[in-house]
Amino acid sequence: MTSTSSTPGTADRSAAFTAAVSERKLKADGASGDRVARILGIVLIVVGVLVTVLAWQNSRSLDDARDIQSNEILAVVGLAVTVVGTGLYVVGALARVLRLWLLRQLVESQDRADQLTEALRGR
Q1: Rounded-to-integer distance, Cα 27 and Cα 32, Å
Q2: Contact between 93 and 45 (Cβ < 8 Å)
Q3: At what angle do helices 65-121 and 8-23 cross, to 10 degrees?
Q4: What is the pLDDT of residue 100?
């Protein structure tokens, strides 16, 4: 049993979509804010995880409960930074996907309108 990553018509549809976007001079990936949000999200995820791990590692060598609690608070802050970073990354990625979906809908609706116009001219 063989598995292929795409169906035979997918490459043709992708090429046709790319040609339609370039023909209409539409911006396919023009929002730099989404890219910044994704990059910032990844950075915050990494920083948050590192802060959490370092706070946990530091708290293992302490005996005083007050020092341990201070490191627990730092670990919770690290987890909060990780959650915020995850949210930023998801928002940026979702915005990109929705932008491409909307662009595809626009191209398809323009094609349908052109077909309808040609059909009405033929009458």
Answers
A1: 12
A2: no
A3: 80
A4: 84
